[in-house]
Write a structure and sequence with these properties.
The chain is mainly α. It is about 70% helix and about 5% strand. A hairpin with a 5-residue loop joins strand 1 (about 65-70) and strand 2 (about 75-80).
Length: about 160
Amino acid sequence: METHFLIQVLEWAEKKPNGFTKEELIASRTFENWEKEILDGYFADADTNHKRTGLPSFTYLPETIFHVIRMNPKKAYVLTPDAFFKYIDYTELKLARQTAKEAKNSSEKSIKISSFSVRIAIFAIMISLLALFMTQTVKLEDEQFRRVESLISTSLEN
């Protein structure tokens, strides 16, 4: 599954704690026109928030994921706290899903191994019971014993 462009933007911006310019972000990857329009809206909202306060502030419109941290020498942005923490939540959820998937695979393997072990144990019990109940005592009459003894002696002499 391809990662949504906003996730890629958050991932890139999260690695820039000292800020980034709009141009740096746009140059970081190839954006479709509609993606650029969405980003332009976020940048415009960040600029509006900055103009309202006159000073860098973390009071922001909830529609934007960017916050202006400085105007000079070039306007720089960072992620808003809300966007940053939502990205952290996303990465934790992604890791949790991967871990759950690995745990499921491990448990399925364990179940198969234990199932195989149970089958072997049942087979061993059946063999033991068969040996116990199928054992017979053979009685030979004197005449039969002498005949078997003579056959063996004859075989050994040849």
